[in-house]
Design a protein that fits this description.
alpha+beta, Pnp Oxidase, Chain A, 182 residues
């Protein structure tokens, strides 16, 4: 049976840190626009406080999460146990896009390994922490992290990555403003 928590315990923080993938869901305000759910991987998630988490947002072909957060801030992160006892944890909250020119960026960025593909940090003030059973989530074997984005950003170089973001990350699929020049 699912439970709710006031804060993230050390045990929960440790469990979250061990997960190899998590999912981020956001939605625009307009009902006729698209809900987004994105998988995230690599060593990009951090617990910042008992009710604050963050992740390193990496360059990609879409900008839905950033667009939705800038519009309304609503976000949920979901973690599933693919090994060990079944478990699902959801962190609902209000998200904020921390661009490289934000006063908190350097301090937060120090919590992550350097990544040339980083476009922002998503900081979430968690308003609801819950878990549920996950009895039907399959067991999956972790083989390794992909290095495709690392190789792509190296090939593009800093100017190429900026040009890519300018072309692909200006607006969401629904035309909501996306990545801001920093």
């Amino acid at each position: 049976m699912g439970k709710h928590y006031d804060t993230l315990s050390q045990e929960q923080q440790n469990w979250l840190a061990r997960q190899k993938v998590f999912f981020v869901a956001t939605a625009p305000l307009a009902a006729d626009r698209h809900v987004n759910c994105s998988p995230k991987g690599g060593d990009t998630f951090r617990v910042i406080g008992a009710r604050v988490v963050g992740y390193l947002d990496l360059t990609g072909s879409g900008i839905e999460t950033i667009s939705h957060l800038q519009e309304n801030g609503r976000i949920v992160l979901m973690f599933c146990a693919f090994e060990g006892p079944p478990k699902i944890v959801r962190l609902h909250g209000s998200g904020e896009v921390i661009y490289p020119n934000h006063p908190d960026y350097s301090r937060l960025n120090d919590k992550f390994a350097p990544h040339a593909g980083a476009r922002a940090i998503i900081r979430v003030n968690v308003t609801r922490i819950s878990d549920s059973c996950g009895y039907s989530v399959p067991f999956l074997d972790f083989v390794g992290h992909r290095d495709t984005l690392d190789r792509w950003t190296e090939k593009q170089g800093p100017e190429g990555v900026i040009a890519y973001r300018d072309k692909k990350n200006r607006t969401s699929i629904d035309g909501i403003p996306g990545y801001k020049d920093v």
